[in-house]
Amino acid sequence: MHALFLAWQYLVFNKIRSLTLVACVTLIAVLPLSLEVLLDESERQLLSRAQSTPLLLGARGSALDLVMNALYFDDEVPELISMLAVDELLAMDLAEPVPLYTRFNARGFPIVGTTLDYFDFRGLKLAQGRQMAVLGEIVLGASVAESLNLKPGDNLLSSPQTVFDLAGIYPLKMKVVGVLERSHTPDDLAVFADVKTTWVIEGLGHGHQDVSQVTDETLIMQRSENGVVASPKLFQYNEITADNIDSFHFHGDAGEYPLTAVIVIPDDTRSSTILRGRYLEEAGMHQVVLPEKVIDGLLQNIFRIKNVLDAVIVLVGSATLLALVLVFALSLRLRQRELHTIFKLGCSRATITYLLAAEILIIGLIAAGLCAALLSVVDGYSSDLVRTLFIN
Amino acid sequence: MINIQSLEFHYPGNGFSLAIEQFDVAQGEKVAVIGPSGSGKTTLLNLAAGIIKSERGSLAVANTKIEQLSDAQRRDFRINNIGFVFQDFELIEYLNVMDNIIHPYRITRSLQLTPSVRQRAIQLAEKIGISDKLNRYANDLSQGEKQRVAICRALLPGPKLVFADEATGNLDPRNKDRILDLLFDNVAEHGATLLAVTHDHELLPRFDRVVDFLEFHTPGPA
Amino acid sequence: MKITIFALAGFFAMMAQFATAAVANERLRIYTVNYPLQYFAQRIAGDDAEVVFPAPGDIDPAFWKPDVQTVGAYQGADLILLNGANYAKWINRVSLPRRRLVNTSAGFAENYIDAGSGMAHSHGGGAAHAHAGIAFTTWLDFRQSLRQADSIRQAIIRKRPQLKAEVDKNFAMLESDLLALDAELKSIVSGTQNQALLASHPVYQYLARQYDVTLYSVMWEPDEFPDPSQWKKLENLARMNAAKWMLWEGTPAAESVEQLKRMGIGSIVFNPCANLPAQGDFLSVMKNNLAMLKQVF
């Protein structure tokens, strides 16, 4: 106990040196452990999300891009498929499809165009408001609502694309009708719209004045008995309201409307196997992937990188420890006089060793305490940190 | 109290050697040892305190043959029987005055730090005149105050011998007298024997005996 | 100890079964987009389902727009029965759970009739697109209505397999009624292919095709007296095709009937029964329609 008291007094008297030592030791310990916590959490998040998604259908190409965009709403939009893929899937009568269209975003958050089935599938519940009912309505993930300070009744504008391109995507003012409960998944960071609303953003659907009622002839290019050709001057609504929703309609073949992916929920294991077999053909336009397998492969790579990081941390840590040992040795040299004095007073060399060991112990304990505190913070925020640092 | 006969010692490496044929100090005596620098006066104190061990000869302190003790025994003997007062005070800078005074009780198992020890330390500090500075740190004290703390530290365990190595060397003339008064009074009160190494000839008349180190010691080549 | 564990395990297993059974035994909640589908579904499901068609009784369901609360009610249904053939246009503007949607006419979608109605429009610079006008009163072909009913039967069984026996039994009775209607209509129009009829609205396309009835339609509202140009058009149609009878989808205005009479054209009401009838049900309304048709042929 005396050794601890004396050691504590010494450390407190030399605050800056002591704090520096504590900080160094804490950092050496916290870095690899935090990395371990974050990687464990990222593995858990990635895997659990992937495991809960039976199959994913998308354009043939990078399975990883497809999975990352469909499951984690990654910025990298994969090659598009069309609603035809959904029709083909339905015709097979082996699975239920949940379409996804994630091309657009609103104030930095991805707009996920889908159907109400998505919410049932992911078990998402509403915290405020109601579910989207009509075109133009959106439901926000918990983090989106918090970050943008939005609640049911507010509006959110989709972000324009290709601002200087006259043929670009123009913003649609969407109405927030609901906010989801926090799910601690990428769904917290998404803006959910009906897939038809995202097609309106795309320009495949729109609303405007009834062309047959238009009197301003500059809005009409050509009239005939069977049809009217409107000029580009005809104003198209950039907001869907109760007054103009009836004018909203879609042009073209619905089968060709774009999607980024389709979540495929097979009826049973046999159906899943059959489906995967049917899409194996290399020449086909579509691929069906097992998200769990894709993410597992990704995690294998991450762990390979982690091993390299671990080796680097070990090297850096060793160098830091050596530096700490040097600092300690130098401070011992500075304290030679004090140590000689207490030796002369009758202190044994063993007791001197205990005194020095007590200092190391105290520094170690404080560092351990700080490390534990920091780790508990990292652990507490790990799911958000992982989403921010690795997934988003 | 101290009996030295045919004592020989040398420091390996630098060639310094010490040879004392006969040297005695009686109990309760206040002896001053004078001599040129480097003559081995501090070495004599270190030998008598058991800090270093002689190679040959007999060295009895308080009837204990020091040369026959092991390192641990010499340490225990030292802390229980000898109080040190150094020229540079050698206080522990990160401890306050009170903790400096009771420091010997924290660095060895031979001395037990009890509430009564703390009480005695306060009383000793009052006597020596530093009881109002018990919470101050060494760097906040004047030279005289520091030496008072060192004296308290040396006397608290109730040693039979007090070794003062140039105890007034760093003090101004006014403080020298005061410190020496304190040392003499308290040594006498405790019934202890004082062996003081000093360069200060002005202080010599105050001692019972003054010993010129060169009279009984033949220093070897440095 | 072992006995306690087994007893507890057995207890919990029983509770789980009860819970599952309780959920499975809950009445199915079915929403439809028109009355015929409601009629079929209620007949097939019987007391095991609550079948709702929430549109007000005085409007044409094909042009009805539910409010947000009603859309919410649809979202909460176990099954949402659609007519198909682009009947309920509001479907394209709302969000409904796809897994619970049943397009009852998907089985014969390739046989939809292009109504060719509605003005097409396109936007300058792009290709011209016409709004596909598909005839949507699919149930007036009783063979088709039977297929729609069968689609409903299959959907109910998928949702509640334990109801199969009851559902099949109910369906058999409905099938018998629909086939009877089909046979009677065939018998009524048999040998009358050359007799042209007029129709107040283009809603009898499937009936005309299936039962080989020659029909020429105008766009008249039963409760509105047509303007002179409309009368002119009708007159030409009647004269060119020697049509002597007009089928009205609802009770026509008296003066319209009088005017037609003066033109030598009789009026009968053939109610498509898209909405809940003031009296009777789908079957009685159709029977009444056929009785009316007997006057014509």
Walk me through what this model shows.
The complex is a heterotrimer of chains A (392), B (222) and C (297). Chain A is an alpha+beta fold. Chain A folds into two domains: 139 residues, no CATH class; 236 residues, no CATH class. Chain A has twelve helices and 17 strands. In chain A, strands 4, 5, 6, 7, 8, 9 and 10 form a seven-stranded mixed sheet that branches. A four-stranded antiparallel sheet of chain A has the order 3-16-1-17, sandwiched between helices. The longest helix of chain A is centred in the last third of the chain and has 44 residues. Chain A is elongated and about 115 Å long. Chain A starts with a helix and ends with a helix. Chain B has 222 residues and is an alpha/beta fold. Chain B has a single domain, classed as P-loop containing nucleotide triphosphate hydrolases (Rossmann fold), CATH 3.40.50. In chain B, 33% of the residues lie in helices and 23% in strands. Chain B contains seven helices and nine strands, in the order E-E-E-H-E-E-H-E-H-H-H-E-H-E-E-H. In chain B, the strands form two sheets. In chain B, strands 6-7-8-3-9 form a five-stranded parallel sheet, with helices on both faces. The two termini of chain B are 30 Å apart. The mean pLDDT of chain B is 85. With 297 residues, chain C is α/β, with parallel strands linked by helices. Chain C has two domains: 160 residues, Nitrogenase molybdenum iron protein domain (Rossmann fold); 107 residues, Rossmann fold (3-Layer(aba) Sandwich). Chain C is built from nine helices and nine strands. Chain C has a four-stranded parallel sheet with strand order 2-1-3-4, sandwiched between helices. In chain C, strand 8, helix 8 and strand 9 form a beta-alpha-beta unit. Chain C starts with a helix and ends with a helix. The chains are: A alpha+beta (392), B alpha/beta (222), C alpha/beta (297). Chains A and C meet through strand 3, strand 13 and strand 14 of A and helix 3 and strand 5 of C. Strand 13 of chain A pairs parallel with strand 5 of chain C.
